[in-house]
Amino acid sequence: MLADLPPDIQRQVGRGISILRRGGIVAFPTDTAYGLGACANLYQAVERVYSQFGGRIDLVIDGSGCPGGRESTIVDVTGETPVVLQEGAISREELRRVCGSIVFREGG
């Protein structure tokens, strides 16, 4: 999927991933405004995002971890065969039952 993007966008995405893995913050456009992204499981990164708003956030909803200690299951369904990008609380068996044919990305 990344390989389908223009080379300059591929470089930007790769740089963004590297920044996020080091606990940095990345700004990205949405339909109406820019968003700030950080690695949600790095406390320091999340704190940096909060600090950018200078106390102007009225509420932050933080579940403080996922049930069972597993993060969200992330599945890319943009192609013909679903690809699990991150394994989480949904078991492989359940994913196979629902999706039939599915690919589990190594390290996902």
Strand order of the largest sheet: 3-4-5
Spatial extent as radius of gyration: 17 Å
Low-confidence stretches: none
Count of DSSP strands: 5
Major β-sheet profile: 3 strands, mixed
Order of helices and strands: HEEHEEHE
Query: In whole angstroms, how far apart are the ends?
Result: 15 Å
User: What portion of residues is helical?
Assistant: 25-40%
Descriptive notes:
The chain has 108 residues and is of the alpha+beta class. The protein has two domains: 1-63, no CATH class; 65-108, no CATH class. The protein contains three helices and five strands, in the order αββαββαβ. The chain has helices spanning 7-21, 43-51, 92-99, and strands spanning 26-29, 34-37, 74-76, 83-86, 103-104. It has a three-stranded mixed sheet with strand order 3-4-5, with no helix packed on it. A hairpin with a 6-residue loop joins strand 3 (74-76) and strand 4. The longest helix has 15 residues, at 7-21. The protein is globular.
